[in-house]
Known about the structure:
The structure holds 2 protein chains of 2 kinds.
Chain A: E1 2-13, E2 16-27, E3 31-35, H1 42-49, E4 57-62, E5 65-66, E6 78-82, H2 93-101, H3 109-118, H4 132-144, E7 150-154, H5 162-174, E8 180-185, H6 188-192, E9 197-202, E10 205-211, H7 212-218, E11 220-225, E12 240-246, E13 249-254, H8 259-270, E14 275-280, H9 283-293
Parallel strand pairs in A: 3-8, 3-9, 6-7, 7-8
Antiparallel strand pairs in A: 1-2, 1-4, 4-5, 9-10, 11-13, 11-14, 12-13
Helix pairs in contact in A: 3-4, 4-5
Chain B: H1 2-14, H2 16-38, H3 42-45, H4 50-80, H5 97-126, H6 135-158, H7 163-186, H8 196-218, H9 221-241, H10 244-251, E1 261-265, E2 279-288, E3 295-308, E4 313-315, E5 319-320, E6 324-325, E7 331-339, H11 340-346, E8 351-371, E9 377-379, E10 383-387, E11 396-401, E12 407-413, E13 433-439, E14 452-457, E15 459-460, E16 467-468, E17 475-493, H12 495-510
Helix pairs in contact in B: 1-5, 2-4, 2-5, 4-5, 4-6, 5-6, 6-8, 7-9, 8-9
Amino acid sequence: MSAIQTENLVKKFRRVDALQGFTLSVPEGAVYALVGPNGAGKTTAIKILMNILRATSGRAEVLGVDSSQVKGHRLESIGYVSENQEQPEWMTVEYMLAYLRGFYPTWDRNLETELIKQFELPRNRKLGHLSRGMRMKAALASSLAYHPQVIVLDEPFTGLDPLVRDELIQGLLDRAEESTIFVSSHDLGEIETFASHVAYLEEGKLRFAEELATLTSRFREVELTFDAPPAMPPQPPPNWMQMSNSSAVVRFTESQFDAERSAADIRRIFGEPRNITFSPMSLRAIFLAMAKAGRNPA
Amino acid sequence: MNQVGNIFRKDVRHQWIEIVVSAGLLICFAWVKMGEWSRPGIGAIANEGAGAVLYVIAGALTTPLLLISWMFLIVRAVHGESPAGDRQFWVTRPYEWKQLLVAKILFVIAFINVPLFLAQTFLVYKAGFQPAHYLAGLLWLQLFWTLVLLLPAVALAAVTRNIGHWLLALLFVGLFAIGLSILAAAVPSSSFPTPVDSIGLLLVIMAAIAAILLQYSLRRTAQSRWLIAAVAGVIMLILVATPYRRLIARAYPRAKPDFPLRLSLAVAPSGIHYHLRNRVPVNVEFQLSGLSNDSFVELNGYILTLRNSSGQHWDSGWEGRGGMSFPEDKILTTNLEISKDELDKLSASPITGDLMMAFTLYHDRNQRSFVVPRGEFSFPDLGWCSSDPNNSISGLTCRVALRRPQFWMVSSEMASSTCPLANDQLAPKPGEIVRAFIRGGSDPAEPGLSPVLTTGITFWQTSTNRISGICPGTPLTLSNPDDVGRSRIEVHIDNAWFDAYLKALNSTRSQ
């Protein structure tokens, strides 16, 4: 069963199409990363899921409930943390947690204490007097203490120093077993360390969505070394991206890597190179390659 | 109820300073109001020293500050969980909208309505009245302030994100009110009070309730704002589209032959020596005949229409006027006004006109006698009053709880006045009567923050406009005039009258 599901979701803001037929399925228990450049539509998609915005058309569900009904008691099992969310700055950390406690039947006082300790939150300091990182930690603590089934995070790590980022990620991962985590980010480096699935959104359109392990296993940076400059194929296979050559060296990105088949394709097109190197790619390198190629790799 | 209590406690904790300030201002307001009953006028207070100066300053500032503090309480409470905008923390928390709304209503009731009710009850008690007898009026006042002030303030707060936006919205409301008054000035007869007036207020209340419900249940800010704007448009439309002339004609049917007034237009050059606000007066006299001893007539207003032979015309629209005539008066005189510019424009060619004047005929009933006691006394069905025994022109000063009688007349024979005559004052002739009128509303209370009204009752003679004092021992006659019929008198004014009038006007201009 999917914890989050969208189908052909469209959102228009006057003349801007923020989402154009966004379809996604987030399996239960996944740590699902929605990535894409700024303005891709990630926040819009999340706001529709959280019933902050209404979709122009299409359907969205969270825990089997239509997103337009995600309100009131239905939010007892959903956590939400966003870089854009205004917090009641006059409240101290302790008072905010005490206040929110009254809204959640499943609030866990022990977990609350544990989170305060883990995030090193100053109990008596007002939220308005906290640093950005501390504020995000407080927001996350207040969204984890009731054991939500789904945690939705919108750009939670933006502008945070690496130490705080790691603490937040660790805090999330500690609870990953009991929750589905859906996190948006434009920083691929941070996602790579903990996401189980990744979806790429660009200009309101979903370019692809799959398990991170599958994605990283099917992408390789390929370097071919020849004795003499080879003849470049006029029409390379569609899964070869960003092909370039420099003297006797040819480089490209293989988006459907399979050791035997990929090597066979190379030999069929170029003959026998002196050397073939298949290097694993970071998530960042994969997305850069895709963005530059401007095409769907699937 | 869990969420209601949780949110309410949070709001109290957040706004305890504002709550204390508001309560302090309410206490100050009660102190100022109580002082108004016992202190002399501002001129005399100036001699009382620094304490009195402080009192005057407090008197001037307390009410506006109190209203501002209430607005601040409301706006801050609503914006604590603002239904407008998409970044508020509460939007993604399991708030039940009904419980949130109840918590906010409870906050307003607890820190505005209840303290105001207690302060008003206290004032009624301190003014010498039994609060239990005035419970309906006290509750009505709560309803009044809730509907005309608190509810619109909550609605505006519900469709704005922060106090800056709220102030901006308030500015728009102010601009709308100015626009409405400009429009009203341009629509002839729109000042005539009609039942349609209350539709506007009803629409505002309904729009405020709808906007609040829409915002709390669905957070549809754009739609809520459009709803408020649409209602403003409808109110303007009602103002423009109301058939005032027809309503005036219906309210004041043509006078029957036995109506005790006959109209005569006088040129009265002595009456046109002033030009007020670029308007020139036209003196009109009515001859009274056949008015029974227990009756009198009141002029309510007029409509004057002028046109010239070139086809230009000018319409005064409904102009409210006061003035009463009694059986002993032979003539009722009143001044109408014409725009000077319009008159100059029209007088380029021969002018004619039509005048409609509206009257109410009253029969006096339930007459009873009362002799003014010394000191402060209880005036039956009114309140606590006092007279100044050494002043030959001052009437009575009274404290009234919640509302004055709907229509009361108090009369006295000048000759029976016990007030000492001033040196230059002539002794009144027998049969000369002075009267005073007290007019309240028909609602259980008159609108106002204070439930205790201080009202001066001035006695004057309608034919001479002479004011007479009422002193201890002066016998009075109280009565309740009964509206027995409304009528209009219409007359065509020919060009000959206007020629004479313009000649007289020009001669006074050249003087």
